[in-house]
Design brief:
Elements: H1 3-29, H2 39-77, H3 83-104, H4 106-119, H5 125-168
Length: 185
């Protein structure tokens, strides 16, 4: 099997795994809409999901990790492109996977602890408020700022660089094909 074939297969697997995990989280946890609910409601629903929900979040986070070998394989499959452009695309793609993983990994590690702390019948109002502050802070920082904004921005930039690499590596007869802004003359 060629590198391009393996990259294509992995691309299909990663896309399927990501979408399947996202769809299951939407069905079982009302994600991402649940994030607009009060912290106590989010944590109660998370706690009710049990171990299977934690494992589902873990699987969702691992889809970001799977992007690393995918990016490397895609970059090596475009062997005749500009090496600088390939290096930039690979670096940006790996960084996108890392920040998306960092944004998601709070769910299987931090959130179970916060859900247990919030459900503790002996928890004081101050402790419950601290749980709320920690949850909201991590949600805004790791979830929104790092995972969503930075992760998606890097993913889009990486795709743009890979697209340019592919367009620059076309066989000579095809270099004048494609959308006008990508044609090489």
């Amino acid at each position: 099997m060629t590198t391009a074939t393996v990259a294509g297969l992995l691309m299909t697997v990663v896309a399927f795994a990501f979408n399947a995990a996202f769809a299951l989280l939407a069905a079982r946890f009302d994600y991402p809409d649940i994030l607009r609910e009060p912290t106590a409601d989010v944590l109660a629903k998370f706690r009710a999901g049990g171990t299977s929900l934690v494992l589902l979040w873990w699987a969702f986070a691992l889809t970001a990790v799977l992007m690393v070998p995918l990016v490397v394989l895609l970059s090596s499959a475009i062997g005749d492109a500009d090496p600088t452009l390939i290096a930039i695309a690979t670096t940006v793609g790996v960084l996108a996977a890392v920040v998306q993983f960092l944004g998601l990994i709070r769910w299987p590690f931090l959130v179970p602890y916060l859900a247990r702390a919030a459900a503790d019948p002996d928890a004081s109002p101050a402790r419950r408020e601290a749980v709320d502050i920690v949850f909201q802070s991590f949600n805004r920082y790791l979830g929104v700022a790092v995972g969503e904004h930075l992760g998606y921005l890097l993913t889009l930039r990486g795709r743009r660089h890979r697209r340019r690499s592919v367009l620059n590596s076309r066989p000579q007869p095809l270099r004048h094909c494609g959308p006008p802004r990508f044609r090489r003359v």
